[in-house]
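Supplementary Note 3. Input sequence used for the single-chain structure prediction.
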Amino acid sequence: MILIAVLAVGVFCYFLWRHRALDLTRNCRWRQVKSEGQWRCSYCGAVDAGSEAPRICRNPERSA
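The predicted structure, written as discrete structure tokens, is reproduced below.
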């Protein structure tokens, strides 16, 4: 019984961490444009520079 409670708390903590670690919407589809050195969202058109895929939605119309 205690093991089930510990597992349930662990799963809850994992989902809480996952929610905070990744702040993308379901529609975010980042595509890398290597020639320009940036990432572009194919859903909303947001642009972000960098070598790694963005982990935060950059859509200016999205409410925080």
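Residues 2-21 form the longest helix (20 residues). The first strand starts at residue 30 and ends at 33.
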